[in-house]
Design a protein that fits this description.
Blueprint: E1 4-13, E2 17-19, E3 23-25, E4 28-32, E5 37-40, E6 59-66, E7 75-85, H1 94-102, E8 107-108, H2 111-119, E9 126-129, E10 133-141, H3 148-160, H4 167-173, E11 182-189, E12 195-199, H5 203-215, H6 220-234, E13 241-246, E14 258-264, H7 271-276
Parallel strand pairs: 5-7, 8-9
Antiparallel strand pairs: 1-4, 1-6, 2-3, 4-5, 6-7, 9-13, 10-11, 11-12, 13-14
Helix pairs in contact: 5-6
Length: 280
Amino acid sequence: MMPVKKRIYILVKTYPTISEKYAELVCTAGVLEDGAWIRLYPMPFRLLNDDQKYPKYTWVQVNVERNTSDFRPESYQPDISTMVVEPKPDKLDWDERRRIVFRNKPIYTNLQALIDEAKSTAKTSLAVFKPTKILDFVIESDNRSWNPKKLATLQSQSQQLNLFQTPEEIEAEFRVVQKVPYKFSYRFEDDSGKQSKMMIEDWEIGMLYFNCLWRVHGDESVATAKVKEKYLDSFLQRDIYFFLGTTKRFHNVAPNPFIIIGIFYPPIPSPNQQISLFDL
């Protein structure tokens, strides 16, 4: 299959992970102009040029081809050398974001129905989900450093690929993002009253934690409390949706293969706006 240029509206950037095969990765997902989901993987975000480092809610153009090593139908492999990031609008327009996000796609409210669809021949692995009620925001301790074996592999790859660079240049390029030492999850109900706990793995929550940590001079308890305040108190004053995605490894085997890969939190619409959403 020949690569095809796609115009993609970026909705999801997960917090970076370390892979022995692909080095440092960010799973990226968005929607095409017709509203269809697309996943870009692998995406070596740190190797992108500065003008290619796409923020959320921007359009990018990039050549992609179907990722044949991934059975999930939305997965495509990008050619990062072709990536162009379009200028971000000067004004934040939540109505326009809503139109793009909700175009030609269902908004799931029943988690089991979505899981059943993922396990069916459809293999659905990206979705917009509207929780009926958010019950809690859960913070749990996690490993404080990356897997040493994966780090060693990554460092070896960096050195092998840069034989003509000085040690200082290699060191400058070998920048591994700091690991978040906590797991953050939502506990919520769907429209059947079923309660679930689901981990949040988006870029925003990781950066929010480290920004809060810096502002409170390294006090982790205060930093995590500030993260909870935003995700449980501030966001619940808005019209909250989850962007859900599966991991390839657990898609077919986990009882619930989905994790929260992004939060969409536009203002609560007026009654007139709520009616107009059905016309999208």
